[in-house]
Amino acid sequence: MHRGIMSKKIEMNAGANTRLAHIGNDPHDYFGFVNPPVVHASTVLFPDAETMASRKQRYTYGTRGTPTSDALADAMNELEGAAGTILVPSGLAAVTVPLLAFLSSGDHVLIVDSVYNPTRHFADTMLVRLGVEVTYYDPMVGAGIADLMKSNTKVVLTEAPGSGTFEMQDIPAIVEAAHKGGAVVMLDNTWATPLFFRPLDFGVDISIQAATKYPGGHSDILLGTVSANEATWKQLLACHGALGMCAAPDDVYQVLRGLRTMGVRLERHQESALAIARWLEGRAGVARVLHPALESHPGHAIWKRDFKGASGLFSIVLDGGDAKKAHAFLNALRIFGLGYSWGGYESLAVHVQLDDRQVAHAPQEGPVVRLQIGLENVEDLKADLERGLAAAGH
């Protein structure tokens, strides 16, 4: 949960899969066992009253970290280039905890309008109730975000690419403007993971991940990670401790295990998703494909400049129709499951609801369907999508 201490050093220039296979723990710390122990802990004993009073030992209580949580936090620090990482019970908690850490009554926050919908719900309910002023901005604003900054703007929350419609953002330009105004910049980096984009390298202060997705990778874990730079780490850690929002040891262990194969899984997700996205472009019944790695995408130049790869999540805009057409498409699918999460081994599809947008308006051609491309064979997935398009009227 806190800053990890890794005994076995892996060269930073080693390949991604090499680092993923070894970061986070040293087997020789645990009698040579390859995986770290799963420590189930609440009470931690002290050797004497003086140590208990001073709390001068590494572990003091289960909520403050264990060898298991430190192993995953250390791995994330290595991947993110972070000063420290906290672990929380869900991806949504990974968004809400840092917002609570850096916002107070009377403050102003700028949130990208293409943000993950539960984040918007938290902002419009909890943050507003706590006296925080919330403004949503166009994901294409770039350096123009300087015009939206106020004297009390304390946080700029970004997400790249945007949920559902995959708008790219000029993160370096936004960071420069936000920092000039004294704001902390946070980025939900779940789509890319630190393998394909390292927010802190681009000046972002806090990198957020739903480890439920690619780090977990098997649709059976809820977990979030928040990695901070030196300037924001202590304040983030203090808030995390005050909230007592720690992650369960078995979930932490399974995410650490998932990291070992995340690189090779992402390679497959990327390859399959891009092949399917290119295949869908221009097909009857598809008005547009919203995938940043496609040359046709409005944000492709930014993606190519800043990102090292693309994951397996993108959307299509159906050609005409409404929710009824989207439902016909979804109901015809046999391999794609209908589910809200993503990042697992199985393919998923969902009708994207965009009626909450304020400035980043929904595509007008037809309903938007988000596709999570899993690890199945590409030809089988294409055949399944053909069934969906046929049922939708094409």
TrEMBL record:
The keyword Lyase applies. It holds the Pfam family Cys_Met_Meta_PP. Its cofactor is pyridoxal 5'-phosphate. CDD domains: CGS_like. Gene3D superfamilies: Aspartate Aminotransferase, domain 1, Type I PLP-dependent aspartate aminotransferase-like (Major domain). Its EC number is 4.4.1.8. Keywords: Lyase, Pyridoxal phosphate. The modification N6-(pyridoxal phosphate)lysine is found at K213. The keyword Lyase applies. It comes from the Bacteria. GO terms for molecular function: cysteine-S-conjugate beta-lyase activity; pyridoxal phosphate binding. GO terms for biological process: L-cysteine catabolic process to pyruvate; transsulfuration. It is an enzyme of class 4 (lyase). It catalyses: L,L-cystathionine + H2O = L-homocysteine + pyruvate + NH4(+). Belongs to the trans-sulfuration enzymes family. NCBIfam families: cysta_beta_ly_B, PRK05967.1. This is Cystathionine beta-lyase. It comes from Nitratireductor indicus C115.
